[in-house]
Amino acid sequence: MTPPLEVSPTPVTPTQIGRDLERADGVEKVTGRAAYAVEMAPADALHAWLVTSTIARGRVTAIDHGRALAHPGVVAVLDHTNAPRLAQTDNAELAILQDAEVGYRGQIVAVVLAETSEAAREGASLVDLTYASDPHEAELREDNADHRPEAVNPELPTDTDEGDVDAALAGADVVVEETYRTAYESNNPLEPHAVVARWQEDGDGPVLTLHDSTQGVYGVAAALAPMLGLEDRQLRVVAPYVGGGFGSKGEAHSHEMAAALAARTVPGRAVRLAVTRQQMFAMTGYRTATISRMRLGAHADGTLTAIEHRAFEQTSRIREYAEQTASPTRMMYAAPHRRTRHRLARLDVTVPSWMRAPGEMPGMLAHELAMDDLAIATGVDPVDLRVRNEPEVDPETKLPWNDRRLVECLERGAEAFGWRERPAEAAARLDGEWWIGTGVASATYPMMRQPGNEARVCSLPDGRYAVSIAAVDIGTGARTVLAQIASDALGCPLDAVQLEIADTLLPSASVAGGSSGTSSWGSAIVAAAQQFRADHGDSPDPGLVTTASAADNPDAQTHAMHSFGAVFAEARVHRLTGEVRVPRLHGTYSVGRVINPRTARSQLLGGLVMGLSAALLEESWRDPRFGHFVTQDLATYHVATHADVLDLQADWLEEDDQLATPMGSRGIGEIGIVGTSAAVLNAVRHAIGVPVRQIPVTPDLLVAALPGS
């Protein structure tokens, strides 16, 4: 195969970019014609059901398939004694059914295959298992979070130091020293994790095809192929439609390996596996709880002199994941003395993973609550305090900003929200049975373009073009915006673009995550389109092909690239029960050029709602005695619904960031959740005059502290 050209794309003149277009796949989705992973199974596919461990640590000492195999419709039972052997087992999360060891409660210990889903489920309940348990640890505390990881997600330094923080704090006029906590949160996309696996022979050996609900087809292939002993050509991953992920589908999980191993034992037949909602809490990722110890030192006027952020979180003993909780603290506000730390508790639990804005969401919650603590201690308005600590350059790297417009977001958002009408005193407004308060928080998210993205342009008859890249649309509108980008880069009408995505047979694409998808894939499409036009002109003959990737962005080495925003919230707290309602939630953002206002607003509003949900409702509750989340469904794990969302608005500044991408855009998917929970908690504090330093803020935390109680 000819390697792709590496091209430095030039800015794109917007014609389709910026248009408020309906989603290209909207009709298919609302009419039910969009086929999701399990719907790709052929009629004769076997159904798989997972048997998971009921101990947190130990080993399986005996397993009996007899009753399961006797059940009508059950075809086979796989466990560590008869499952195919893996070529590599270094990823312990994926190396399932290879030995008797159990590393966490909910680990896959057997797979039942049957002719129907009902038979598979009943068969799974009939597998008899005996365990030997070992002592386990499943509770995050500051005193057990003592492991220093080599790096934090994705490859950031674990600790940073600048200046003399202790001396600066000792000499500060005002010191804030508080601890802030965030709960465990579980990704709950509408479509559960699911996969259809099928092995076939092609003459050169076995070929495995996975129709998967994933955020990155190449990522799944890269994780599974070497473990299964396959070459790249022997594993195809397809993800035509994905019903959300929020990060949990950003990397391979053990259910995908389970389907691949099960299908290997029934050559020629497909295996259909859908993870249940309950099982998703045990094996498909979640946001680690965090404990953030913040220390801020400042002059009497609120100007920061020192910032320290010590983050304590957890990982799994079987596979390490370290979230970058303190990373936004390193660059958000000016202060000459700075320190950040990350420490992990290594627990006998399932592996945590990405969840929308990992690191930035819990880290900025702590920092923005601490900023309000400082505002109260100094008597400075919270908006003015943030403006007062605006840095001229990136405090961490000392590089100039690409386009930092946080102050404009704060000022514009404050005006639209009516912030200046806010009483300076807390607990100053009572409307009937409800105390009323308002709060603000800043938001930030790094601009990222991932490597390894390639796009292919092929000319078709009648002036049309096939544009191909293995990007996955997880419901964000990628199909729509990538076609808009291709149309402008090729100089052709939008309906002349035939977009092909989400298949490892197409040119490689990075994961849909880190708010990097459109930036990474779009830059590759622009590079391929511009090279195609340079090679073949604007009226090419059919059948001409160019494959290219975008060269590394040199400006990323000379500028600090981030997006920013400001979130304003109004909270009402019932004076007797402590119930919290948020009737107004507004966000104003600086995110570069917006490619499609409709899909962008949808993403920002979704992030705001998710931040509201985290602030008031979401908590996965782990029982340390047994090592599992006891909240395993949407009846006990609460998320925001329509009734929780009233006046919800997202706005943005008009801009064009050519330092970031040739489209002038930056990422949008995650910044909406950053800062939102902090704005809500700051509003609750203003309503009742009582500090709230953990999420979710539930009535039991407030009722005893309400004014007049």
Instruction: Bin the helical content.
Output: 10-25%
Arrangement of strands in the largest sheet = 4-6-2-13-10-11-12
Could you name the CATH class of the domain at 397-449 and 560-709?
Alpha Beta
| CATH fold name of the domain at 397-449 and 560-709 | Aldehyde Oxidoreductase, domain 4
Taking the sheet with the most strands, its summary is: 7 strands, mixed
Notes on the protein architecture:
The protein contains 15 helices and 27 strands. With about 700 residues, it is of the alpha+beta class. Among the domains are: about 130 residues, Aldehyde oxidase/xanthine dehydrogenase, molybdopterin binding domain (Aldehyde Oxidoreductase, domain 4, 2-Layer Sandwich); about 200 residues, Aldehyde oxidase/xanthine dehydrogenase, molybdopterin binding domain (Aldehyde Oxidoreductase, domain 4, 2-Layer Sandwich), CATH 3.30.365. A 7-stranded mixed sheet has the order 4-6-2-13-10-11-12, with helices on both faces. Helix 8 runs parallel beside helix 14. The mean pLDDT is about 95.
Annotate the secondary structure layout.
Elements: E1 5-7, H1 26-31, E2 46-52, E3 58-64, H2 66-70, E4 74-78, E5 101-102, E6 108-114, H3 117-125, E7 128-133, E8 160-162, H4 165-170, E9 174-182, E10 194-201, E11 206-212, H5 217-228, E12 235-238, H6 254-264, E13 271-274, H7 277-283, E14 290-298, E15 304-316, E16 337-347, H8 360-378, H9 382-388, H10 406-417, E17 430-431, E18 434-446, E19 455-459, E20 465-468, H11 478-490, E21 497-500, H12 517-536, E22 545-550, E23 562-574, E24 580-590, H13 597-616, E25 622-623, E26 628-629, E27 647-652, H14 676-688, H15 699-702
Parallel strand pairs: 1-22, 2-13, 11-12, 15-16, 20-21, 24-27
Antiparallel strand pairs: 2-6, 3-5, 3-7, 4-6, 8-16, 9-14, 10-11, 10-13, 14-15, 17-18, 18-23, 19-20, 19-22, 23-24, 25-26
Helix pairs in contact: 8-14, 11-12, 13-14
